[in-house]
Specification:
four-stranded antiparallel sheet; six-stranded mixed sheet; 575 residues
Length: 575
């Protein structure tokens, strides 16, 4: 709640003006029953048509003034609600950007999407209603009771009994439903995650004929959400009938009391009509208040969920150091490094030590699950090592600024990721002030220039979400070009050429070698021919180093490397 108020501080004027105008509207509404009673008692009772019409104009004027106040209040309330939700999304997105890969793995992508969309929308709707009704409805309720006392103390006692009973019903249901709405949003998280996973892996689902199984999994998640929504909806639905019962019982008692008072001359007919109107106003406002309570309850539950993410501190803290190249200082040093992923049963990397000098090309090879990607992911600090130390150009990575690491290391990930826009906009992510000549140089080195030139719009050719309008090999080459254009000191190609044929892969490695200069290049691959020309090859086996050396040295002295090589080229082939 405190964080929600912090977002509202930039909209103080709107937050004050909106309820103030709704109070003004309510003030006009409270006078309507009195004017109506006066028309009945003094106009109709005396057959004075002029009196009736003159007071009817007063009613119209009160209605027009109330309408103007209501519309203006709605404008300011909507402006504040939309502004707060926009600021909340910005803050939430900015905070998520500070998360490391481990934080994202822990929280989950599906729940982050739900909190940024559904939960923020719930907060927006709840705040809009709150600014319009949180003062108006109680003001009408208690104002009507006070006005009733000015007409008849005996009749007004009915209001004094009915209103507390209604309050117990409304706030009791609110207390019960608030945790249930929170649980419902959790079920929505699970459903969103299921749908997202299914859409992302739709090709796999169809390839293995798992449509029926995935449909059943979706139905299970959807049934859980439906069950939770029906449960909390059923409890919330009790509010209207219970409040109607109380108000209608009060109305019956009021009419009976009014009839007796009229017969003894204590009340006029118009006064009873006014009391009934005030009771109806209370009924209408309590229905609004009930809906407000339901919406605000959902909004508070959603605000708590958003606040949970904003309270989650990133697990990685960065220093203030910068990268400085010094003669003879290694580009990358791993000193007895180990890595255990959060929640994992064992280590993914164990006691890894090696040194990479500026300008060297380091090959990383091993079987599936041997820890190749885990190793190179520690260099740009996507994850933090759990033991040992990692240094870039002599400085521990924990002591470097995030910007310094980003400027030093460029990565072409194993899974090629392009963003909707154009080829140009994707390349500019690597270097925001890149010239067109720089782009073509990077595309040429990445073996992507030919198919880009084949596009009618060239660099301005559209890229759909995820790059789905390009083949797998084209996506990989564009992501490599995006990494190359940054001109990093350290370039990591994490199996980013797996979709390329051998000839294109060889041309790519040759082009990178020619342009690298002092750039340290890490090539992660399961292909022996992709790493065999590296200055140094690191062979991994079940998270441990099985050997380090050149191609010839490893063939002679590393059984794991020899097995990989012979499985791809055959025994006795030329080396």
């Amino acid at each position: 709640m405190k964080r929600l108020l912090s977002f509202l501080k930039n909209y103080r004027r709107e937050a004050v003006v909106a309820p103030a105008l709704k109070m003004l509207e309510a003030f006009f509404d409270l006078f309507v029953p009195l004017v109506t009673a006066d028309i009945i008692n003094n106009g109709i009772g005396r057959a004075d048509s002029r009196y009736v019409f003159s007071h009817a104009l007063i009613l119209i004027l009160l209605g027009l003034l109330g309408l103007a106040a209501s519309i203006t209040a709605q404008y300011f309330a909507a402006k504040a609600a939309v502004g707060v939700s926009s600021a909340m999304r910005h803050e939430l997105f900015h905070h998520i950007q500070s998360f490391g890969f481990a934080d994202l793995d822990k929280v989950g992508t599906g729940t982050l999407i739900t909190r940024m969309t559904s939960d923020v929308n719930q907060v927006q709707n709840g705040l809009n209603l709150f600014l319009r009704l949180f003062l108006r409805s109680p003001f009408i309720v208690f104002g009507s009771m006070i006005m009733a006392f000015t007409i008849s103390v005996k009749a007004a006692l009915i209001f004094a009994v009915a209103i507390p009973v209604l309050g117990v019903i409304v706030f009791g249901i609110m207390k019960v439903t608030r945790p249930l709405y929170r649980k419902t949003q959790g079920s929505l998280d699970a459903l969103t995650g299921t749908v997202r996973e299914n859409l992302t892996g739709v090709r796999v689902v169809r390839a293995f004929g798992r449509e029926d199984a995935e449909t059943a999994r979706f139905h299970k998640a959807n049934a859980a959400l439906t069950r939770d929504q029906l449960h909390v909806g059923g409890i919330s639905a009790l509010m209207n009938p219970l409040t109607f019962v109380v108000v209608n019982v009060a109305l019956i008692v009021l009419l009976n009391t009014g009839a007796v008072e009229i017969s003894v001359g204590s009340l006029a007919q118009g006064d009873v009509v006014a009391l009934v109107n005030y009771l109806n106003q209370i009924l209408v406002e309590l229905v609004k208040l009930a809906n407000l309570i339901v919406q605000v309850t959902r909004a508070l539950a959603s605000a708590d969920r958003v606040d949970e993410i904003l309270k989650t501190e990133p697990s990685m803290q960065y220093g203030s150091g910068t990268v400085e190249e010094k003669p003879g200082v290694p580009a990358v040093v791993f000193d007895h490094v180990s890595l255990t992923y959060p929640g994992a049963g064992g280590e993914s990397l164990h006691d890894i030590s090696f040194t990479a000098m500026p300008g060297e090309t380091i090959g990383v090879i091993g079987g599936t699950g041997s820890g190749k990607s885990s190793l190179v992911n520690l260099i740009p600090r996507f994850y933090d090592r759990t033991d040992g130390s990692i240094r870039l150009f002599g400085t521990r990575v924990e002591n470097l600024k995030k910007e310094a690491i980003d400027e030093t290391v460029a990565v072409a990930l194993q899974k090629a990721a392009l963003f909707s826009g154009t080829i140009r906009s994707n390349l500019l992510m690597g270097k925001k002030d890149a010239e067109e000549a720089d782009m073509w140089r990077a595309l040429t080195a990445a073996q992507a220039a030919d198919f880009v030139r084949g596009k009618k719009a060239g660099l301005d050719a559209p890229v759909e979400q995820g790059g789905r309008n390009f083949s797998g090999g084209q996506r990989q080459r564009l992501t490599i070009a995006r990494a190359l254009i940054a001109e990093p000191k350290i370039l990591i190609l994490d199996d980013s050429a797996s979709a390329l044929d051998y000839a294109t892969d060889a041309a790519l490695r040759r082009a990178i070698r020619e342009m690298s200069g002092k750039m340290t290049v890490f090539i992660v691959s399961q292909r022996a021919n992709s790493v065999m020309n590296s200055d140094k090859i690191i062979v991994l086996d079940e998270g441990r180093i099985a050997g380090i050396g050149t191609h010839e040295e490893l063939l002679a002295g590393c059984e794991v490397y020899r097995d990989i090589y012979e499985s791809q080229f055959g025994k006795g082939e030329a080396r």
